[in-house]
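Notes for week 9. Today we move from apo structures to complexes. The key idea is that a small molecule is not decoration. When we ask for a structure prediction with coenzyme A present, the ligand SMILES becomes part of the input, just like the chain. The input block below holds both the sequence and the ligand string. Read it once before you look at the output, and try to guess where the molecule might sit.
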Amino acid sequence: MTHHGSERLRIVEVDPFDDAALDAWHAVYAAAETFGYEDTATPWQLGEARVLLQEPTSDTWAAAWSGVLGDGPGASVVSAGWMETPLRDNLERADVTVHVLPEHRRRGHGTAMLAHLEGVARERGRSILLTEAHHAYAAGPAGAGEPGPEFARARGFTLGLGDVQRELRLPVAEELLDRLAAEAAPHCAAYTLRSWVGPVPDELLDGWAEVTASLMTEAPVGDLALEPEVPDSHGVREREGSVARQGRTTYDTVALDVDGAVAAYTELVTTVHEPGRAYQWGTLVRRAHRGHRLGLAVKVANLRLLQAERPDIALVTTYNAEVNDHMIGVNELLGFRPVARLAELQKIL
Ligand SMILES: CC(C)(COP(=O)(O)OP(=O)(O)OC[C@H]1O[C@@H](n2cnc3c(N)ncnc32)[C@H](O)[C@@H]1OP(=O)(O)O)[C@@H](O)C(=O)NCCC(=O)NCCS
């Protein structure tokens, strides 16, 4: 192989307290993530990454690396690497991403960064690498011809799960929300809905910890080697602090059964770094409670909450496994439309 230039590449860990180094890393990451997908890319914002790197939580370790060409004042960052490892469960897993500036691609810089990340993963006792590659909807779940999936495949990853990214323009008409809520109501009359903004109410904390931890394995996982997450109420509070310091606000709705246990949940998130946007995070109906239209009920209630509290939000973005017919059905009723894909790929070291 003739990878011109890669021999001069230095890979350096980013000191998250060095603003210039962190900015340079993030600029490369964001430019590479967005290139070619200007209308649909959803890169992590600098202020969000900074908090994750500067103030790690007890359940996740995170670090970033820059690939630097040249020395001294002429040095420039051309590639960006990221790794997160769970610390409480999934102890063999390392989540990685590799990004290379468009004008520096196909010279081996991506390969060099990935090799570095694999070394770090091994040192940290990790043997399962997971990565995500955003790509065009029309390319299908495998992302044929798209840089991210093609690169990952060339470097030994296989597709574990194909996700579809969907978007919803807000506001959703009140009449539609009324109609959908009325449709769900007779099926879930035995449940109570509760919604809130920000931290989970104390009396729901343990139930919330359990239901959110189960998302990882109760939602479709395809061929990904994911282990169940360990529920941890202290961890929930810790993450809430981290999310708030990242400039994010959460909007949550749960369905409680007759005993007050959390049967279903859904969570929307806004960020000060992206005015006008919200992201749909997890939604889950516990297995024992499926078939009561709770997925629709919690999503309608949560959208009502968001629309009431945040009339400034014009767009919601969500990701679903392509095989998740029920969740997608709910999303299409609300008006979500597909715009792009995300391939979740895995490599066993
Ligand atoms: C994916 C990405 C990191 C590749 O960076 P890169 O420096 O071009 O990668 P390399 O030069 O090391 O490529 C290694 C091999 O991957 C494959 N590959 C990389 N890009 C490809 C493309 N656009 N189409 C087809 N194959 C490709 C090729 O087999 C290539 O070897 P070759 O150039 O000898 O044919 C870069 O395109 C990028 O930043 N994309 C956006 C972020 C992303 O999707 N990352 C993937 C998830 S980690």
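Confidence is low (pLDDT under 50) at residues 1-6.
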